[in-house]
Every structure is written in structure tokens, then in C-alpha cells.
Protein 1
Amino acid sequence: MSVSIDLFAQLDIRVGRIIEVDDIPGARKPIYKFKIDFGPLGIKQCAGGIKPYYTKEQLLGKQVVAVINLEPKSVVGVISECMMLSSFNETDLSLLAPDKEMPLGTKVA
């Protein structure tokens, strides 16, 4: 399936920093709740099923790349306001991040 450049351009992809990581008790699958700081764009909450791949300590303070203009969605009772981007296969997952420190809220294109 092809996506037009106009449709792709509607995504607001930004650099953020994970400032809080919590377990979500009662979830069927291992999942974390995050607070991600996007600098002048504010702090957004996110839920992600990456617990099998990262410890809380590995995630706290990490810069990530996320889509920040998705419609909020309830995930296991947590309102997720953005989506961190990752590469993954059947056995592993890696969060996408800038290869050097970037200002929070920096646009990704």
C-alpha cells in the first residue's frame, strides 16, 4: 500500500525524552505507561508494550522519536496521547532515537 506524501506530511513526529516509566497493573501483556517531555509542546502520556525489551532504568531519560498528533486512545485504562516509533521483528525491538542529543520537540521528517 502506498501513502501519498501529503498524507505522510500530516504526521507530527517529534523528539521527546522519557521522564517517567510506570507499570500498568492488571494488563494482560507486559506494558509500561510513560510520560514523555516534548519541550515547548508539553508532556504527553503514552502506553507501550515494550516491557519485555527494556527495563525502567534503561528507558528513564532516553530520547525517543514519537508521533504526537494521533487521536488519544485508551490502552488498558491509560489514555495514550502519542506513539513512540520502533523497529522490531519476531524476537527483538529497538526504539528509534536521534543519533545525537537534540532539543526536545525537534521535528522529525
Protein 2
Amino acid sequence: MRLDVYNLSTSTVSSAAEAAFEAAVHGLAAHSPNTGVALQSTLSADPDHVAALALKGFANLILARSELQSPAADALAAARRAMANRDGGTRDEQVLVHALDAAVNGSFAMAALRLDDGFRERPATFLPFKISHALRFMLGDAKGMLAASHRVMEVWNETLPAAGFLLGCHAFALEEHGFYDAAEAAGERAVQLQPDDAWGLHAVSHVHEMRGETASGIAWLEDSRSSWSRCNNFAFHMAWHLALLHLERGDHEQVLKIYDEEVRPQQTDDFRDMANAISLLWRLNQTGADVGSRWADLAETALKRRHDTTLVFASLHTLAALAAIGDDAGVSEVISGLERKATGSGDQARVAAEVGIPLARIIAGMSTAADRQRLDQLVLDMPMIGGSNAQRDFFLLAVAKAAGTNGDRAGLSRIRDMRCRLRAEDRLLGSIEMHMAL
């Protein structure tokens, strides 16, 4: 057994593999573009590195693409073979693989629970904690994120391996519950301890956005640009936050500049990149800004991904892009896909049935009377879609717009009240209300 610098026990006997794996784990924490290379180097040095195979499986699943389900399952099978070759592997490896099995079979919730339970006596072991945090983020399980990070904080001190990264995750969990002062303090301390902690930087940017502190938020992101601009495509997401702050100030020219140069500098089809771009253009449209031909590249990519319902969060953004260009056939295909998804099993089937389908119809302007009657419940259930409060705000605004379009002033007022529990009143909701009055 070998204990790595992040306190994970592995069965590898290769020092080169272990060094590469530690680099991969650091890359995961820092959102480094070199993480995949480090992971591949690990497996080149030791093809039976169980933890690396497990991380490879999770990495494929978190990308939420239908074509990556098979590679994730292959990584799981390889990890099991590797453990068999090493007398069953270490207990830490067994927990990772057991959790990956749940995730491959469609339950991120069970996977996160297995990671938490398996490391309950050592909650600050970074890799399982970070994977659990990421899975719960995709599930919109803020309560689970905070419970896990509170367990870490019970044993946390500044000398722990990955102390800054752990604290950055805690900051984000605090922010998602509206504990903004505590989140800001934790996030700032996390970045002091670990300047590579993009997630801690991210948590503090959320705090500024939710408070409506545009000047402070812009300054925070600009001052830390040298850190987050080195990230993988997470840099696009950080730029998205910067653009939202400028949008709140009404600076459409600056928002479009950031969109072109930093939010959508390349035509990727990663669902996270698409979500950034689609939700930003939609917001710009609501404020009356001319976005030119920018929907075209998004619609082209959305059309290619319209049948992929691996993640409802991604499908809803795909639908929004198709709706924006008036592709009724494409919109119908996305909704039909979600209806089929809802008949299946796993976490996302439930999300599709309870939230995805009615919300898709609302975004598409095809809502039924039943959909409109349950707007309040839809808003309450919206965290199931996953992502952050800031990301889901796009859907909340879409529901508010639907209420306004249908003349439901009482519904719009209730949505505004629920929304204001987490964020300051802003220009976007004002634009929707103004259009309702016209």
C-alpha cells in the first residue's frame, strides 16, 4: 500500500505512476488543462493504477455525453480487473470503484453517498470528497454538498493536504445556501492558501453576483484573471460570470466583447461551454440587445446534440438554443427525447419527469394549462436540474417570462419573491416585468 500526498491509499508500486497521479489530482482541483495528460501518464506508467482508472471513469461521466458512457463502463471494468490483480486492492480503491459502479449505472446520488460513507472516518481525503462534491453539484444537491464539507471542516486545518482546495469547496457550498459572508471569508482564505484554487475564486464571484455587487465582482475577477485564465474550459465559465456582472450594469458592448473573446472563443460542444453561451445570449435578448448572428453557431452544435438526454440540464440548454432560432422541429425532438428519458431509470429519468419536461415546454412556448398551474412547484423543484443557483437562474427567468407572457402577474410576483431570497433584485427581471407592462 502506498499513501499519496493527498492521503489516498493505492496499491501501485510505481513511483512514476504515483507522481503522475498526484499531478492529475492537483490538476482536477485546479481545473488545469493538463489533467488529462497527467492521468494518461499515470496509466502509461501503471496500467493497473486503480484510482486512476476510477478517476478516468468519473471524468467521462461528468462530461455528460452519451458516447462517453461506454468508455466510463470500460474504465470501471478495467479498475475491477486491476483490483483482482492486486489482491482486491486497498480499501480506498474499493470505495472509489464501488462508487463508480453506481455512477455508471445512472445514480450519481448513490455514488456520492458511497464516497461519503466509505471515507466517513477520513472526510478530508481530497479525491473522493472532490468527486462527491462534483457529482452533487451536477445533481443540484446543495444540502449534500454542505453536509459533506461541514464534515471536512470538523477536521480541517491549514496543514492538511489540499487545505485550500477543501476550503474552496466549502465556500461554494456555503454560497449556494445563501450564507454569503461565511462563503466570502472561506473563499478568500482558500485562495490565499492555494492560489490555484479556481473553485474558491468562483465561489467568491458567486457571492458578489448574488449580492448585486457588480463593481466588487468585476474587480475580484479582473484581479484574479492571471489565475483563472490558466484553467481549462472553466476559464470560459469564469468569463461568463464576468459578463453577467457587466450585463447587470447595462454594458452590452462589453458583454459581447467578453462573449466573443472569452466565453465562446471556440466552437466547442461541451455542455458547460454551451450553457454559458446560450444562457448569456438569452439574457442579452431579454434586455433588447442585438446579438447579431451569434445564435447560429450555438444552434448548429445544439442540433447535433438534440438527441442526447444524458443530462437534463444540458438538454434544456440545447432546447433553448433551438427555440431561439425558431427550429420547431428540433425543439420537438428534444422534448420527445426527454419524454422517453422520463420512462427510464436513474437520477436523470426522475429529473426529466418531474422538472425537465414541463420546463422544456415552458422554454419552448408550448406550456400546457397544467404546466402553468404548477409554476410555484416547478420553481421549488428546480434545484433537481443541477448546476448552481446562478446557472439555474436562467431557467427561473424563463419561467418568470412565461408567467409574464401569460398575464400571470401573481405568478410573476411569487417567482420574484422566491428569487429574491437568494439574490438582489436585478436588471433582467426588471426587463421581463417591463415587457409584461407594455
